[in-house]
Write a structure and sequence with these properties.
The chain is α/β, with parallel strands linked by helices and 308 residues long. It contains 10 helices and 14 strands. It has 2 domains: 212 residues, P-loop containing nucleotide triphosphate hydrolases (Rossmann fold), CATH 3.40.50.300; 62 residues, 2-Layer Sandwich (Alpha-Beta Plaits).
């Protein structure tokens, strides 16, 4: 069953078609990733899902009914452009945003302090928001997004400005929310993070959905005849080799697509015969990064985050 159904959304700003007939489904109890390069249409799509922008055409369905105020009341939304009141103090800010969602009381204050402790912000509880670093402001915004215990958590580029430790803490909390039965929707251009976190994805490029569905099924489909290789040595002899269809260098990993399924094991033997030290050889394996490059263009347009 789907919690949300996005059907044929279109949105233009003047001559720019920001979202072009976008459709995808968000299953119940899932972590769903809307992924694509910067400017692909992710934020516009999310804002239409939230009724912040009205679509030119199309609709968003919440469990069989058109999205309305009921959905907004059940959502914790972290926008790409952060919105905190700079003069307010940290704890006051968190309680204020929770109150806007109808939540208050001693238990909520206790919960807010627990989150501040997890994010190592206990000593800033009475600081003004403007006194915090951008990274700490981002953490406050994230806590405010989830403090009122929303059924849906929508995060637009949530990892911007966070160091590796706090990025991993966000990932931990997202998984906790999933285990509680919450529905997590986040947009990102960081393919490696999406690959490790998401159950389902929709990939958007130039306003169009170019890939959509279960991540495991999509990887299985695109991984055929693909090898993910880590090695030491020189593999230049593979250039223009009769078995090799394509070689893609992703830094730590090299993707090699062979022309026929039986070439997979022959390639491994060829590497060893040429004194290449094979550290990792995964047949029929492909990264989300490789899929995106294959579908949407040049490698330099896509970013990975190496520490997640």
């Amino acid at each position: 069953m789907y919690a949300l159904e996005v059907k044929n959304l279109c949105k233009s700003f003047g001559k720019l078609k920001a979202v072009d007939n976008a459709s995808f489904n968000v299953p119940e109890g899932s972590v769903f990733g809307l992924i694509g390069r910067n400017g692909a249409g992710k934020t516009t799509t999310i804002r239409m899902m939230m009724n912040i922008y009205m679509p030119d055409s199309g609709e968003v369905i919440l469990r069989g009914s058109t999205v309305g105020q009921e959905f907004k009341n059940s959502v914790g939304y972290l926008p790409e452009e952060r919105g905190l009141y700079k003069k307010m103090r940290v704890l006051e800010t968190l309680l204020y945003f929770a109150e806007l969602k109808g939540k208050a009381g001693k238990n909520l204050t206790k919960k807010a302090k627990e989150y501040l402790e997890r994010f190592d912000l206990t000593d800033r509880i009475n600081s003004k928001v403007e006194e915090l670093s951008k990274g700490n402001q981002q953490k406050i915004q994230f806590i405010a997004t989830i403090l009122h215990d929303p059924e849906f958590v929508i995060l637009d580029e949530p990892f911007s400005g966070l160091d590796p430790i706090n990025t991993n803490l966000l990932r931990e909390i997202i998984l906790e929310k999933k285990n509680e039965g919450k529905i997590i929707i986040f947009s990102t251009h960081l393919m490696d993070f999406a690959e490790k976190m998401c159950d389902h994805i929709a990939m958007i490029d130039h306003g169009k959905i170019i890939l959509n569905g279960s991540l495991s099924q999509l990887k299985s489909k695109y991984a055929q005849r693909n090898i993910s290789l880590n090695y030491e040595g020189d593999i230049s002899f593979l250039n223009n080799h009769q078995m090799v269809e394509k070689i893609s260098d992703f830094g730590n990993t090299t993707g090699i697509k062979v022309k026929l399924p039986e070439h997979t094991q022959q390639l491994l033997k060829l590497l060893i015969d040429n004194n290449v030290t094979v550290k990792k050889f995964d047949a029929n394996d492909i990264s989300l990064q490789e899929i995106f490059v294959q579908l949407a263009g040049k490698e330099e347009d896509v970013m990975e985050v190496p520490y997640v």
